[in-house]
Specification:
By secondary structure, the protein is mainly α. It is built from three helices and two strands; from the N terminus they run H-E-E-H-H. It has a two-stranded antiparallel ribbon. A hairpin with a 6-residue loop joins strand 1 and strand 2.
Length: about 140
């Protein structure tokens, strides 16, 4: 019985130290704690950090996709504006040609023709300005 008390005392002592030496000199056993709260909390913290980083990465991907889509929509809008300006220029050019023919038949005045030419040149300037804004 005295041996058992020494054995139990040795086990308690060995658990706290991590090394257990039994009274028999032929046996040595090493013990390790099965559950360590400090280590587990560190592991949980690292897992949380990894999950947060994953969410940050996904958010950055979404922000990048949003910026790319916005830029693409702006390009399409500018392209449509250019097409509208070109169509407007064509209409103004045809109007000038029509006014020139009307003037030659004396159905229009010189001021109407000059106003049509001014409108045509303003349309050309608008088109050039829009092209410059796209290059930026």
């Amino acid at each position: 019985m005295g041996k058992e008390k020494g054995l139990i005392g040795g086990i308690k002592e060995g658990i706290s130290k991590g090394l257990q030496i039994l009274p028999n000199p032929n046996f040595i056993s090493v013990s390790e704690t099965i559950f360590d709260v400090y280590k587990m909390s560190k592991i949980d913290i690292e897992k949380s950090k990894i999950e947060i980083d994953r969410y940050k990465f996904e958010m950055e991907k979404q922000n990048l996709a949003n910026r790319v889509l916005t830029l693409y929509m702006n390009i399409l809008k500018s392209k449509n504006k250019l097409e509208v300006y070109r169509a407007y220029i064509d209409a103004k050019e045809k109007r000038v040609q029509l006014l020139d023919k009307k003037l030659s038949m004396r159905l229009s005045t010189k001021s109407e023709l000059l106003q049509g030419e001014v409108d045509y040149h303003f349309s050309l300037m608008d088109l050039k300005r829009e092209k410059k804004s796209i290059r930026v």
